[in-house]
Specification:
The chain has 301 residues and is mainly α. The protein has helices at 4-8, 21-34, 38-49, 55-64, 71-84, 88-94, 105-114, 120-129, 134-142, 146-155, 159-172, 179-185, 212-232, 235-245, 248-251, 264-275, 277-286, 293-296.
Length: 301
């Protein structure tokens, strides 16, 4: 594949005083789409990729989607669009369109390493959209702020991205002593919330070998969200919480006995036995249900 044509070709800038930028792009577009010479087509695409006009992006997209063009020409146009990106956010937005062009994997890898570091959300998007990039992206993801990576694990629209983030966080545990504390912060209950942090996708709690205090911190947050879901009628989200709470690595490590109840009132009573009435009262007060008959019974011994 002649992807190198778009990365190393040095063309003479178009002379000032010549055709307008729109005319230049129109002529180059026609050449790329219809010229008999494949070399001329490649040179035209390279010139478009290096053009300073923002319209060049649209022209390359037109060529990429032109079904009558040879696959090689369309691949060059896709690589040209990659060449023009100047941020990982732009690259992440473009990545889904690259699935049909396997040959652009190498230009994508080169671009990822050339661009300034992006946030975990965009890096995860690239990792799941273009699996060939994962080896280049994993070091960037594991070097990211753990709290930001955990937030992306909760909020990313793709389940595969959330699962990947959870696995990476689990693998980082042996190198960062304060990792559990930072990850736990992403699950903290927000009294002004109108939805759960993991809305629209799977809920993951990575296995980090939580100690007693860490397990109680994250368990307390999950129980608060369980209460929130009960109040809001979010049965599916409640089940997701229960699936994670019953993990032996959290439940037993937090000092809980028996099995976690799926009923919110009973779960609050179980938590009462561990943290005491004062802390449980604070949980209820945060959500203005301290004196709600449905939940106040949790404070009774």
């Amino acid at each position: 594949m002649l992807w190198w044509l778009l990365l190393s070709c040095e063309l003479t800038p178009l002379a000032l005083g010549g055709p307008s930028a729109g005319d230049q792009l129109s002529q180059l577009r026609d050449t790329a789409m219809f010229h008999e010479s494949i070399v001329a087509r490649g040179e035209a695409i390279s010139a478009i990729a290096q053009h300073k006009s923002p319209d060049a992006d649209r022209v390359l997209a037109d060529i990429q989607s032109f079904g009558n063009a040879p696959e090689l020409v369309r691949t060059w146009a896709a690589a040209g669009r990659i060449q023009r990106t100047d941020s990982l956010e732009e690259l992440a937005q473009l990545a889904p369109e690259m699935r049909n062009f396997p040959a652009v994997a190498r230009p994508l890898r080169l671009k990822v390493t050339a661009l300034p570091g992006g946030g975990p959300h965009d890096l995860l998007t690239l990792a799941v959209e273009v699996p060939d990039l994962q080896s280049a992206l994993v070091p960037l993801l594991t070097a990211a702020d753990p709290t930001e990576l955990a937030t992306a694990m909760l909020s990313h629209p793709r389940t595969e991205a959330r699962r990947l983030a959870a696995g990476l966080i689990g693998g980082m545990a042996q190198n960062q002593d304060d990792l559990p504390r930072k990850v736990a912060a992403a699950y903290a209950f927000e009294p002004t919330a109108s939805s759960v942090p993991w809305e629209g996708g799977a809920l993951y709690v990575p296995g980090l070998g939580w100690n007693r205090d860490e397990a109680r911190t994250i368990m307390g947050s999950l129980i608060e969200w369980h209460l929130f879901c009960d109040r809001m009628g979010l049965a599916q989200e409640q089940q997701q919480i229960h699936n994670n709470i019953r993990s032996v690595g959290l439940w037993r490590q937090a000092g809980m006995r028996g099995s976690p109840s799926t009923n919110t009132l009973q779960l609050l009573k179980q938590w009462h036995q561990v943290v005491g009435g004062k802390q449980l009262a604070r949980i209820l007060e945060k959500q203005s249900v301290r004196y709600d008959p449905k939940y106040a019974g949790a404070l009774e011994r």
